[in-house]
């Protein structure tokens, strides 16, 4: 393959993600006029074309190898040569099936993320429903089958058919893509704005959208991407450690990672923690490989991975700081005669990694939603500074926390290689990031999702001392038995052993009182879809519930159906305890013509509404004049109620 062809491959890889995640995914659908939406669309396209030209120009002197070199043979070869890891993957996946079938969580953002993909489907279904008498799910499935058939045909004729010729003809390809994006722009231009379109970057939303289209929405499908991300994270952690240490120690690191309570817990949780860990490790792998082999491709893949990481979860922007600090620490950028040539090289290609990041930073600055604000005053409060260090035994268990402390001393004294130094830098920068979050000052408690970002570093630190100890066992059979026993113990501590014996927080032990963590919104929405007419108006309130997801799953929410979900609720009503009264609640329902009121048991609502009001709603003697209890649903000791609003 010529250098020119290789340059096209590099150029297209970046240009495709820029176009796909900003133009195909309608990030330009601002709450502005049609003309302004068109200007934003054109401005984004011009920005990407300009930077595509810069990248093509800068990249020419360095191209020597293909950007991607992945095939099915390399994947199967990895699995065959790492049978222990493959067996652990299978066991890990099987044990995750039961938790993945549980109802979506009422607390946390699982329901929110599950609904993100549905927002896109709702808009598509509305548009397609006006044009075609067929569900878009089936259109998408037929399109996937059609594309697979084209791919098979093109592969079998070895790119010599007319179809392949059209694809390879750059002028026809550009013309086809131009027509597609013009038609797509006109079709989507008048779609209504939704805050969910910009509340999180696009990758997580598109993952959910595509999986829903292929398999239909379900609890298992919501969580499946996170299980896959967890397994891929273990693979790339293994590959990262293999760069600097022997394969057996790399295996220990991957196994330790899969035994961490936070990793096990988030593998069956639809929030984005597992994907965040995966992208963190992916960036680290390509960067550490670049440091070792000095290849241009690996640094390009590093910045490419950072772009994808940010478009998945915004805090992963911290990885740019990680790689630049380490470039100076490692001596790849040092103050000598060649300083400017090295500095400009890394600066130029870091900028290419920032190209898809900058537009999203601008978008979130101008639109409402969760922004990350950093507070220096957090570091003046030692209670805040030490929250995550003090919480370490709760997230790893007392046994592993002790091993971690010993391993830090061991690595600093005897194993201060570049792998240890890199993950130490990563650990501290992530710690600074999550501790400096302005929300910490108000909240002042540990968020398990944030604590999970330490898992790759924790796995590498802990596995070093575990490996060193087991290496002292001379007999191979005894070493194997000790290894199996140790990791079985760690896994059991994170999955079935009651938390009082391990020191792990009960919410992280996978099978411990598992049903008590979920409220029966699935039952409630299934009941609503079967027993109420399309004209009935419901209101379902109280923070991060999975109402919208189940309304879509059971077809209880469509264009005509007025199920008022949490984002439509007048949340200011619940900010002041003295306003949480029957009178205010009934007045709100009457004003909005709400027929039925859906609410969970008090356990799930304390941050959003007075528990005494929930108790009163359940008491017919107190609520009899304004509300009448219709139905209650129970799961694991938790309840969801439907109450009729009396006019």
How would you characterize the overall build of this protein?
- The chain has about 650 residues and is mainly alpha-helical.
- Helices cover about 65% and strands about 5% of the residues.
- It has helices at about 5-25, 35-60, 70-80, 85-100, 110-130, 135-155, 160-170, 170-190, 195-200, 200-215, 220-240, 245-260, 260-265, 275-295, 295-310, 320-330, 340-355, 360-365, 380-385, 385-390, 390-395, 400-415, 420-435, 440-445, 450, 455-470, 475-495, 520-530, 545-555, 580-590, 610-620, 620-625, and strands spanning about 535-540, 560-565, 595-600, 625-635, 640-645.
- The chain has a five-stranded mixed β-sheet.
- Residues about 560-575 have low confidence and may be disordered.
| Fraction of residues in β-strands | under 5%
Main sheet overview: 5 strands, mixed
Per DSSP E runs of 2 or more residues, the count of β-strands stands at 5
- Rg from Cα: 27 Å
Q: Shape, please?
A: globular
**What is the count of DSSP helices, taking H or I runs of 4+ residues?**
32
Average predicted local confidence, pLDDT: 81
Described by its quaternary structure, the protein is single chain
Helix amount, in percent? 55-70%
Distance between the termini: 76 Å
The chain-level structural class is: mainly alpha
Give the low-pLDDT segments.
558-575
User: Which strand order does the major sheet show?
Assistant: 2-1-3-5-4
């Amino acid at each position: 393959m010529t250098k020119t062809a290789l340059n096209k491959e590099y150029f297209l890889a970046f240009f495709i993600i820029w176009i796909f995640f900003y133009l195909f995914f309608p990030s330009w659908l601002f709450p502005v006029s049609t003309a302004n939406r068109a200007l934003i669309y054109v401005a984004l396209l011009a920005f990407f074309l300009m930077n595509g030209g810069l990248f093509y120009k800068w990249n020419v002197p360095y191209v020597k190898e293909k950007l991607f070199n992945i095939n099915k043979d390399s994947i199967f070869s990895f699995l065959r040569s790492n049978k222990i890891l493959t067996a652990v993957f299978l066991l890990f996946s099987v044990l995750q099936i039961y938790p993945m079938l549980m109802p979506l969580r009422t607390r946390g953002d699982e329901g929110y993320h599950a609904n993100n993909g549905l927002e896109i489907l709702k808009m598509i279904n509305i548009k397609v429903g006006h044009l075609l008498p067929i569900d878009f799910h089936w259109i998408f499935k037929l399109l996937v089958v059609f594309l697979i058939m084209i791919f098979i045909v093109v592969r079998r004729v070895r790119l010599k058919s007319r179809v392949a010729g059209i694809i390879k003809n750059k002028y026809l390809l550009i013309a086809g893509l131009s027509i597609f994006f013009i038609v797509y722009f006109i079709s989507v231009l008048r779609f209504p704005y939704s805050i969910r379109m910009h509340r999180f970057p696009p990758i997580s939303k598109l993952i959910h959208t595509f999986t829903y289209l292929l398999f239909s929405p379900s609890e298992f499908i919501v969580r499946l991407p996170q299980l896959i991300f967890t397994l891929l994270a273990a693979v790339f952690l293994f590959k990262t450690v293999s760069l600097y240490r022997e394969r057996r120690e790399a295996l220990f690191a991957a196994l330790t990672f899969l035994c961490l309570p936070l990793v096990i817990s988030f593998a069956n949780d639809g929030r984005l923690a597992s994907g965040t860990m995966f992208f963190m490790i992916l960036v680290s792998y390509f960067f550490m490989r670049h440091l070792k082999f000095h290849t241009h491709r690996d640094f390009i893949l590093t910045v490419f991975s950072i772009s994808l990481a940010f478009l998945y979860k915004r805090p992963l922007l911290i990885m740019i700081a990680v790689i630049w600090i380490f470039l100076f620490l490692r001596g790849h950028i040092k103050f000598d005669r060649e300083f400017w040539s090295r500095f400009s090289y890394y600066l130029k290609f870091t900028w290419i990694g920032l190209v898809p990041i900058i537009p999203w930073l601008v978008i979130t600055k101008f639109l409402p939603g969760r922004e990350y604000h950093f507070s220096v005053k957090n570091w003046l409060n030692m209670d805040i500074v030490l929250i995550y260090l003090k919480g370490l035994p709760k997230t790893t268990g007392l046994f592993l926390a002790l091993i971690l402390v010993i391993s830090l001393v061991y690595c600093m004294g005897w194993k201060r290689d570049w792998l240890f130094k890199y993950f130490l830098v990563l650990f501290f920068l992530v710690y600074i990031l999550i501790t400096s979050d302005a929300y910490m000052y108000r909240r002042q408690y540990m968020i398990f999702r944030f604590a999970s970002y330490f898992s790759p570093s924790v796995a590498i630190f802990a596995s070093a001392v575990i490996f060193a100890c087991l290496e002292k066992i001379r007999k191979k059979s005894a070493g194997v038995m000790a290894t199996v026993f140790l990791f079985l113990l760690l896994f059991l501590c994170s999955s079935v052993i009651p938390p009082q014996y391990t020191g792990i927080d009960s919410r992280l032990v996978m099978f411990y009182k598992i049903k008590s963590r979920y409220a029966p919104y699935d039952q409630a929405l299934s009941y609503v879809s079967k027993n109420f007419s399309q004209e009935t108006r419901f209101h379902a309130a109280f923070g991060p519930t999975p109402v919208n997801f189940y309304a879509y799953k059971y077809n209880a929410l469509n264009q005509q159906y007025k199920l008022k979900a949490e984002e439509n609720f007048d949340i200011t009503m619940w900010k002041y305890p003295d306003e949480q009264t029957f009178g205010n609640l009934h007045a709100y329902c009457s004003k909005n013509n709400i027929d039925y009121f859906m609410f969970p048991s008090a356990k799930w609502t304390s941050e959003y509404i007075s528990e005494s009001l929930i108790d009163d709603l359940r008491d017919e003697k107190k609520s009899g004049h304004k509300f009448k209890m219709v139905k209650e649903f129970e799961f694991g000791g938790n309840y969801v109620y439907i109450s009729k609003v009396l006019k």
